[in-house]
TrEMBL record:
Ranges of residues in domain Pyruvate carboxyltransferase: 1-77
A Pfam family: HMGL-like
Cellular-component GO terms for this entry: cytoplasm
Species annotation: Salmonella enterica subsp. enterica serovar Java
Protein name: Oxaloacetate decarboxylase
Gene3D superfamilies, per the entry: Aldolase class I
């Protein structure tokens, strides 16, 4: 897709991926190889789960190739060390994900939508019902003609899935 868009249009392309499923790193690499102009990453201590792929991993992957970033991995590590300490201060705000989550592949939930779902469930003292909500999302999407999960439709589908699960009835 990237190479075809670049062939047909004079535009700059930038890729934004969340790392919830483990596929973002591969998507970034393939997009870079196809000519994307920029990608989003996060320093390793703040990456993965709901966030972006780790900067250091991509820098190391591209080292010595035609796409070498020139970034110093040792300097990146000192930045990562700093943010490891910062992140500890905000532990109470961490979501449920602790690594890649294959449920997200099935439900096709974007990273921002996932944090919103967790917040809604937590407010209703129902954080333990996330699995049920993730299972309900594809059913709601099917009922709505498989609309894409981008704002605002992702919030509509997510909220409806939460309501369906919490009330025990669909669309009541």
């Amino acid at each position: 897709l990237v190479s075809e868009i670049k062939k047909r249009f004079e535009v700059r392309l930038h890729l934004h991926c969340h790392a919830t499923t483990g596929m973002a790193e591969m998507a970034l690499l393939k997009a870079i190889e196809a000519g994307v102009d920029g990608v989003d990453t996060a320093i390793s201590s703040m990456s993965a789960t709901y966030g972006h792929p780790a900067t250091e991993a991509l820098v190391a992957t591209l080292a010595g190739t035609e796409h070498d970033t020139g970034l110093d991995i040792l300097k990146l590590e000192s930045i990562a060390a700093y943010f490891r300490e910062v992140r500890k201060k905000y532990h109470a705000f961490e979501g449920q994900l602790k690594g890649y989550d294959s449920r997200i592949l099935v439900a096709q939930v974007p990273g921002g939508m996932l944090t919103n779902l967790e917040s809604q469930l937590k407010q209703q003292n129902a954080a333990d019902r996330l699995d049920q909500v993730l299972a309900e999302i594809p059913r709601v999407r099917k009922d709505l003609g498989f609309i894409p999960l981008v704002t605002p439709t992702s919030q509509i589908v997510g909220t409806q899935a939460v309501l369906n699960v919490l009330t025990g009835e669909r669309y009541k």
